[in-house]
Amino acid sequence: MEDYVVIKAKGHGVQVIGLTRGQETRFNHLEKLDKGEIMIAQFTEYTSAIKIRGSALIYSKHGIIDTDE
C-alpha cells in the first residue's frame, strides 16, 4: 500500500503540485485549494513528491505539519 497524505488549506489559493519519478522530475498534476478544502494525495509508482505552496496543514503517518511554522 502506498503512503497517503491529507492536505487541508488554511487560506485561499493553496497549490498542491505532484512531481513525477524517473530520470527527469516533472510536474504531473496541479490543484488549487481554497480555505477549508481538503485533498487526499497518494505517493505512487509515478508520483515521487508533492510540493505545497500556501498556508496549509499536512497530515501524514509522520504527524501534522503546518506550512506556516
Q: Could you characterize the architecture of this molecule?
A:
The protein has 69 residues and is mainly beta. The protein has one domain: Immunoglobulin-like. The protein has strands spanning 4-9, 14-20, 27-33, 38-42, 47-53, 56-60, 63-66. A four-stranded antiparallel β-sheet has the order 4-1-6-7, with no helix packed on it. The protein has a three-stranded antiparallel β-sheet with strand order 3-2-5, with no helix packed on it. The radius of gyration is 12 Å and the shape is globular.
The chain-level structural class is mainly beta
Classified by CATH, the class is Mainly Beta
Number of strands: 7
Number of domains: 1
State the major sheet.
4 strands, antiparallel
How are the strands of the biggest sheet laid out side by side? 4-1-6-7
Unreliable stretches covering 5 or more consecutive residues: none
As a percent range, the share of helical residues equals: under 10%
Summarize the structure.
The chain has 69 residues and is mainly beta. Helices cover 0% and strands 59% of the residues. The radius of gyration is 12 Å and the shape is globular.
Q: How would you describe this structure in keywords?
A:
69 residues, mainly beta, Immunoglobulin-like, four-stranded antiparallel sheet, three-stranded antiparallel sheet, 7 strands
